[in-house]
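Q: What structure does this chain adopt?
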Amino acid sequence: MLKCRIAYAGAKVESLHQYGNGVPIVPNVCLSWVEQSSIAWISQSISSGNTDESRKLRGRGTVLEALIIYCQDMRMLSARTGDKLRAVSEVARKGRRVKDLRRLMNHPDIWMQAYLNIQGNTGALTRGTDATTMDGYSPERAANLVELIRDKRYKPKPVRRVNIPTKVAGKMRPLAIPSADDKLVQEVVRMILERIYEPLFKDSSHGFRPKRSCHTALKPMQRGWTGSKWFIDIDIKGYFNNINHDKLMELLKKRIEDTQFLDLIRDMLQAGYVEDWQYHKTFSGTPQGGIVSPILANIYLHEFDEFMEQNKQEFDQGKARRRSPAWQKATNHICYYRKRIDALKGDTNPERRTRQAWYEQKIRELSKTQKRLTASDPLDPTYRRLFYVRYADDFLIGIIGSKQEAARLFREVKTFLNTTLKLDISEEKSGIHHAKEGTSFLGYVVQNYTSEKIVKVHSPVYTRVGAATQRTVRERLQLRVPQTKMSEFCQRKGYGSYENVRPSARQSWVHMDDAEILLAYNAAMRGLAHYYALANAAKTGLSKLMYLAKSSFLATIAKKHKSSMSTENSRLRQGKDIVILTNTKEGKPKRYTLFTLRDWKPPQPKEDVDRMPTTAHLRFGRSTLDQRLTANTCESCGKEGGYFEVHHVRKLKDLHGKEWWEQVMSYRKRKTMILCVECHDLLHANKLSNRQKKF
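A:
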């Protein structure tokens, strides 16, 4: 705890300023710097924003009164900061280098927005290598970070590194956990970098970008990759751990002309990590788990996106494939015979009638032959196409062309990644695949499919017979549900043996309520079904796993109630559904139904993009966190003015409702509470209920 004396209005007052978790706001600094840092924040913010209040602040030595004025003017600063961020995007879009980014970090509202972005994250209360968390956040805490960065005294702390299990059974991956202050700084840097690079990123990039996902990467493939002959699949060895720092900084300098901002990013990259109480230096890579890591990884591979775009422009050739000679020959013969039939119509001569029947027989034979042939030449050397899509470090290349051309492009891609980006390729997991055999991408099987099925099509354009036959699917790219992934998912979730179709109970869930068990199964099954909603014949591909999940649910319920699966199936079944009935706290009956594929419909893309959004919830909703924080009022004792902190809880269900403040947070469905320093200390000491409340 740091004990400071703040002098204002001719008097000396002792004040204890600390975070809610016991960490000082400004460690290892003197009082005069505390005053200067707070006033510097406000004077800098107002000088670059609302100049009307600068006269009010001049001549005032009171830190607390200045902070009150700063909070009142925050909304006015937001519009100006938004304009500056938009100007940054515009400068980057024009191809010029962006300047004064470190000065942009002086705006307090950008720090407030950064805090609002991350305060609700799951790891907001997870500690790094120090004791700080998002609990106890205050504008003064952000002001301290701004001053440290401005004076070049801010140094990111080493991240805490832990190993977490992956989706592959028995395999672990490292996860880096930064300290709370470093998370806040990283979020501010991420927001600025996003403004610079988001207008520059290619449409082929989908990972870690706003309003983009795995589905946005897969949907264009279904529509535009039809006819692909070869797939090039390249796997980068440990991409996030092997990003070259010097190369990354070189790429950042192409767009950013701010040495202090770039030095801040380099310090983040070289902060090191602590694992098993041992410090390790970092010479390459971005820590997985860091807030700024995903956008830095995208910036690094943006160079590869531009390389592939240039290759596509050079590779693409021709407007359409030429007609297949065999198909064209059969079509010409059919047209000739039809013309001969038209000429013989109405003639009653038996010999001519026999010739007309022979022509019709030849047309039927040629039509069968024609349906087995491709209309266009698949080996047309004058028609070539290159397709490319990337999600983070996972990318796929499609080729319409010869295998020799695919092999040449494969070598060029490997050379570029090795020499230019200094990344190693896994030879075992990389290769060229024929489109009919397919390959794996983002958990789907991607392959070309051709069906020999012929259907009759009725149309008014067919004036001769009113209908015609046509093929259903020809070299159409399809997404399939991989059964190997279903087997791994079944094993990881403990549903039983996928190969032998033998369900098993979840022993760790037996202690839960029946409704909780059902909701847990529903969450897993519905999430998996929604992810594979783009797959062709999705219900067929998921049916086996869904049967095992349903049987595993019945086995878990049977184990809990010490009965059999058939008994529980008879007890819970209502019609075709398995239902659990419970009562709410108010005594009203509530019905929970087990998820099935029978009535499931894949989510459709929204078509109402031009509809005016409803904003009633914004005008009449609860107060936002930034409004509550800038109100300068303790939500416990009602104290106005002074130093306030934000108290966090991990989950609302952790609130037992014994204390009055727990009841308030639970009733308002809030995981945060604005408290003065005294109330926050009393809350962590379990003595807040003894404090007199004015609210």
